[in-house]
Amino acid sequence: MQKQSHQPDFLLYFAVLALTAIGIVTVYSASTVIALEQGMSAAHFALRQLIFGGIGVVLMTVVTFIPYQIFYRYAAKLMIVSLFLLFLVLIPGIGHRADGSRRWLGPASLHIQPSELALIALILYLAFFFTKKVTIIHSTMRVLRPALLVTVATASLIFLEPDMGTAFTVAATGFIMLFISGIRLKPVIITFIASIPVLYGLIEMAKYRSSRLEVYFHPFQHPAHAYQLISGLTGIARGGLIGTGFDASIEKAGYLPIPQADFIFAVFVEEWGLLGAIALLAIFALLVWRGFRIARFAKDRFGSLLAVGITGMMIVQAFVNLAAVTWLLPITGIPLPFISYGGTSLIMMLLASGILLSISRQTLDVAPEADELADVYDVSEVLRERKRLPIDPMYQQQKKKKPATVAPLKRNKSTAKSAIHYEKTRKNRDGRASTMQVTTWRERSMRYDNRLPNNRKQGSNKNDRT
């Protein structure tokens, strides 16, 4: 099994570069008309996307050669900073307001969108949290509730901007990481089902959100509100098999309000046709395959959770965007990763790809077992977690009782074996002659969960609890 660092996953690296290049070219093609209408050069938006893409590629390359374990140390601090920025953007006079939403920080020429940073910070924090709590992963009070609290707090602050699309992405990514962390599925499923009516109520609270549901079910009965969806579908249908050619889209010429943003896929399909759409989806599929493969062969639990979280985030964003453009889901305002115009989104995606590539430099030749994935932090941390565990009530009751005495028995084989077995059990309970050694985190978790025999339950051995 490979233990030392090696070359990164070049298939993933070139897939990310290809998507970034396609995005810059498509932003140029989709934004020429709207840029000229606003009195700017035709390449204004493309040049900005090129600058952000160049910064992101350099950042991705640098992060690739930084050990990803460093994020384990600073994950909690990054989460706190991101929550602070999300709170800061809601303050009038500090957060920049545009199109009815307050989502950005900074001057008009250089906006920063904290929600994109919060999405990456949440993935880092949940990977750190589920790694640190691996010995008590089934605890609802100490694992599930804190993870849900951080996820809901992040999604709620983004929802208040309002930015329902990014809030949905945050919530969906959080549930993906809950699902793959090893937590019991029953409370996760119950939480998911309970959140559906809450989500529906939040949609109905705002008129513009409820109108999106009406547009989704009956778009041609509400053409005034569904003009963006109808224009996108018209462009996709007009593209045909091979498309109209580069910079020959009609829908970008006044039909789509912001063609270089969320509905850029409609412009791409109109110009490159069905074959171009298949090629673009194939590159996304390559990225997803390499991301999950990196997670499968990661050498520790933190790297595996981190790779799945980043890959899952990209899947959620790409799927929701493409489904909204093609009328499979209501319009939510989520950008297409690497393709849609947006500097913060592109840089954060490239940074996340750099973390994936950093994990790929330390993958193993053979998929590791679960116990090897748990080996990511010092044993002293596990021991400190043990000391904070609650004491088993059954152990407290047994401790108060006086040790029972063994009545004289006849010396036959069956009774002699029973007496010897009882004596061993009593010694193990009192902690005077125990030689039990727990060698894997799975056994520790099962013992805390009271699923092993009574003489191996939590608190049954004083030496083991220290």
From TrEMBL:
Work out whether the entry's keyword set contains Transmembrane helix.
yes
| Origin: domain of life | Bacteria
Q: Where is this region: Disordered?
A: 396-466
Cellular compartments annotated:
Membrane
Compositionally biased residues, Polar residues: 452-466
Q: Which chemical reaction does it catalyze?
A: [GlcNAc-(1->4)-Mur2Ac(oyl-L-Ala-gamma-D-Glu-L-Lys-D-Ala-D-Ala)](n)-di-trans,octa-cis-undecaprenyl diphosphate + beta-D-GlcNAc-(1->4)-Mur2Ac(oyl-L-Ala-gamma-D-Glu-L-Lys-D-Ala-D-Ala)-di-trans,octa-cis-undecaprenyl diphosphate = [GlcNAc-(1->4)-Mur2Ac(oyl-L-Ala-gamma-D-Glu-L-Lys-D-Ala-D-Ala)](n+1)-di-trans,octa-cis-undecaprenyl diphosphate + di-trans,octa-cis-undecaprenyl diphosphate + H(+)
Signal peptide range equals none
- Protein name as catalogued: Probable peptidoglycan glycosyltransferase FtsW
The uppermost taxa in this organism's lineage are: Bacteria, Bacillati, Bacillota, Bacilli, Bacillales
